[in-house]
Amino acid sequence: MISAISWVPKGASKSVPTAADPPSKEEIEEIKKAALLEKGLDVESEEGDDEDMCVDASKQPVEIEQAEIEQALGAANALGKHSIKKAGSSSFPDIADGLDELNMDDYDDEDDDIDIFGSGLGDTFYPSNELDPYLKDKNNDDDSEEVEDIMIKSEDVVVVSTRNEDDMSYLDVWLIEDPDGEPNMYVHHDILIPAFPLCTAWLDCPIKGGEKGNFIAVGSMEPSIEIWDLDVMDEVQPSLILGGYDEKKKKKKKGKKTEKSVKYKEDSHTGAVLSLAWNKGFRNILASASADKLVKIWDVATGKCKLTMEHHTDKVQAVAWNHHEHEVILSGSFDHTVVMRDGRVPAHSGFKWSVGADVECLAWNPHDQHSFVVSLENGTVVGFDIRTATSNSAAELKPNFTLHAHDKAVCAISFNPLVPNLIATGSEDKMVKLWDLSNNQPSCISSQNRKAGAIFSLSFSEDCPFLLALGGSKGNLELWDISSDAGISKRYGKYIRKNNESAST
Fold first, then answer.
1. 346-384 pLDDT, tens digit each
2. What is the three-class DSSP state of 321?
3. CA distance 400 to 438
4. 191, 278, 348, 495: which has the fewest Cβ within 10 Å?
5. Per residue in 290-345, pLDDT tens?
């Protein structure tokens, strides 16, 4: 399945990604320890088990060697019988005579009477490949071909999706060539991640120094947030981990049950991380929402939690920063509420809106700093205007519209970055729909089953605003060029022409 999608802005990726350094012995030990902690195993007891395994393993080579010898003898015997039967003879001397005739003992001896390669070139010696006219350009050609294979051009578009397959989890870094023409899409490289991914957020905070970076933050079933460098191929460890387990050890058995004691890092989440949001105005700030009912604000430059908010009473499923007022944040929960907080007024408890079901997703309108939409588990999409928030009573904050968009949970919403009032919704009913929200009177423009299964994530590209990436239960990343849709072309033709003109220039 694909649970999350994040676009990488054009020009943010290195033109030639670097290869990861091989892990040191200490790093390997840390990886093993982290894997044991995630599985809830006692590190000390497992180390003891490893020692026992090493003792037992010392006997293993003898047993394996004996078994291999017997197996080899059996195979040789069977092969001998097959060969003899095929030859119509059962005597070993015939085989020996055949070997003598081949004269294998003198096979490597040179024949002084035959000069296979002729005179001249056969005796030519070059001190190095650089001086050999037949080899001097070979390495350079190979290197240039390898670089060309992994090069990311300035006009290419990159999108990152999570993938879970056969109990393994990955970040797939997709490259889309010619996105404004006939797109060619393929996985440029992937990253193996240790836990089931639930959400992602791209960020350019320079964690490793410099002015900018190209990183993806990943929230998972674990309480930690991992931040991976997308410019490094074959990386085995994240650049930074926010929160997570400090220790997880087994306690003594009581009856048939084994109790576990869990210790978390300071200010860590204690449940799965369900949503992430990077703050474009303050590039070092990342917000997270968790099943532990908390919203946290992280400083990725220091790796520390700056603020913990406890205004929800159930799992917090979604979090988002305002596109215009970067201190304003929204969060939506399974407690059937959406809360807005303003970092400029930390003492204020914020404003709260009630909704009719569990919150699945929420999104600020990039064209209007005062409005946002919320999608719910019951298939509805609700729109709000924060200017109606004159009190802290959730009962008094009414929605601008309520749209019965899908037959099942609406797991994903995305505003189009170019066209005002155009949004896409994706649902567990497998449908993707495009809506016009003009005048707070939503109308459906297009509805398609994109064969991605139940839709869990979708997102418009900032650089190619008519490209919609989506993924779901079938595990395939799908691209939908919505400009080819008749309804979109008819209603938003001027925006399509404007986008094509800007792309051509």
1. 888 889 999 999 999 999 999 999 999 999 999 999 999
2. strand
3. 11
4. 348
5. 999 999 999 999 999 999 999 999 999 999 999 999 999 999 999 999 999 998 88
Gyration radius of the chain's alpha carbons: 31
Annotate 248-317 with DSSP letters as a single string: EEEEEEETTEEEEEEEEPTT--SS-EEEEEE-SSSTTEEEEEETTS-EEEEETTTTEEEEEE---SS-EE
Residue 25 has pLDDT above 90, yes or no: no
- 232 DSSP β-pair partners: 18
* Three-state SS letters, 360-406: EEEEECCCCCCEEEEEECCCEEEEEEHHHCCCCCHHHCCCCEEEECC
Burial of 55 (0-12, 13-18, 19+ CB in 10 A): exposed
Q: What is the C-alpha separation between 330 and 312, in angstroms, rounded?
A: 12
Domain ranges for the chain, please list them. Answer: 1-40+126-177+191-250+260-292
What H or E segment, with its residue span, contains residue 182?
Answer: none
Q: In what order do the strands lie in the sheet with 431-436?
A: 410-415, 422-427, 431-436, 443-449
Please report, as a single letter, which amino acid is at residue 277.
Answer: A
- The closest alpha carbon to 222, from 297, 169, 160, belongs to 169
- The tens digit of pLDDT for each residue in 155-213 reads 999 999 999 888 899 999 999 998 888 889 999 999 999 999 999 999 999 887 777 89
Query: What beta strand segments (E) does 416-492 contain?
Result: 422-427, 431-436, 443-449, 455-460, 467-472, 478-481
Q: Could you give the angle at the alpha carbon of 198 between the alpha carbons of 194 and 201, nearest 5°?
A: 95
Q: Is the pLDDT of residue 94 over 80?
A: no
Per DSSP, the three-state class of 46 is helix
* Tokens at 114, concatenated: 């035959």
> What is the pTM for the complete model shown?
0.77
Tokens found for residue 16: 């030639």
Chain mean position to CA 257: 36
* HSE-up of residue 184 (Cα within 13 Å, Cβ side): 5
Do the bridges between strand 422-427 and strand 431-436 make them parallel or antiparallel, or are there none, so unpaired?
Answer: antiparallel
The string of DSSP codes covering 52-71 is: HHHHHHTTHHHHHHHHHHHH
Helix (H, G, I), strand (E, B) or coil at 162: strand
Identity at 75, one-letter amino acid code: A
Calpha distance 476→478 (Å, rounded): 6
